[in-house]
Amino acid sequence: DDIAFDKSVSGDGNQLGVIGAPRETQGSTGNFGSLYLFKGTVTNGYKTSEIDAFGEAELPSTTLDLAGLVYTADQQLGESVAMDNGVIVAGAPKNNILGGADTSGSAFVVVATEGAGSAVGHYRTVANLTGVTYGTTEGGEQNPAFGTDVDIFENTIVVGAPSGDYNGVSNAGAVFVFTGFNDVASDSKSYKEKPTRWNRAAVLSQGSAAANDFFGHTVSMPNSSTIVAGAPGRGAGGQGSFFVFTGEGASWTQTQEVQYSGVGSTDNFGDPETSLAVTQKEVFIGSEDGEKVIRYRI
How far is C-alpha 70 from the geometric centre of its chain's CA atoms? Predict the structure, then answer.
């Protein structure tokens, strides 16, 4: 259902990307989900291109430094995917790692620890992120649908949890920020490259959170210091808007809430079916009716 190119690879030359297949059956389990790596060669930019994609390049599900059950039935792995510098993050919003919270969700981190990232054999699953401490059920009701949308930029992962009763407000939603590192000195050049350790750094919520905002239905990072998050239920009748946060690490500040001036009820700007996309200079956000795509400059 989702596709992403490696952000560190662009233009002419070799291309890498990941495709999520959340409805794929594994064994006898439906909606288990899978991830597929694709690669290709692009020449002369958009004018002519030659893509050498390998369709059966399924990423392995072996685990590294993880204990206990991490993959669960009907988890819908690959509902959302993002990739940067050989690090893949994939949302599984129906993962049941937390036990009692059957739709709490999670996000898997798959890293090319064994090579450059151009072959499936390079990748290992290094983390399964949730909105609460790994292996506990504390606060599980706070983050259902965690992993509905994900993004990554360098060593920062952002995950939307739009159905959470965050801070006691029904379906207000939340956005979780994780930072990654390697087991080397913090002043080492490779400290932030292909991180295998991930810590929760911050939980973002929108100003004046309201019921059914579904904040975090879409998330995106155009650069290392900006997070954009959609809230399709925001406003009267589900008009929708998006929020901009700036910062780094554990410190993020909401700097803007943007709602299209011509918005109407039930437009649901920021819904995942219409998507929110960003470049380093622009934000594109669509409405649920498919009739509008609004462009903003950052």
Answer: 18
